[in-house]
Design goal:
Elements: E1 2-3, H1 5-11, H2 16-23, H3 27-34, H4 42-52, H5 56-59, E2 60-61
Antiparallel strand pairs: 1-2
Helix pairs in contact: 2-3
Protein name: Transcriptional regulator
Domain HTH cro/C1-type: 5-59
GO molecular function: DNA binding
């Protein structure tokens, strides 16, 4: 699944570790999310959307 997590994270000047802590996952999981190797659960996708104040559909694309 493609996503814009890296760009959104950079816009907020968050490190990968900071991003991971804010959404409640490990840095390795955050890395896998950014690279599209891990699809988030609905609950995790909604936490990410709240963090970046954007609709889920604008962050994740099939």
């Amino acid at each position: 699944m493609r996503n814009s997590l890296r760009v959104l994270r950079a816009e907020r000047a968050l490190s990968q570790a900071d991003f991971a802590a804010l959404i409640g996952v490990t840095r390795q999981t955050a890395n896998a999310l950014e690279k599209g190797r891990f699809d988030p659960s609905l609950q995790l996708a909604l936490r990410i959307a709240r963090l970046f104040e954007r609709p889920v559909e604008t962050i994740f694309q099939a």
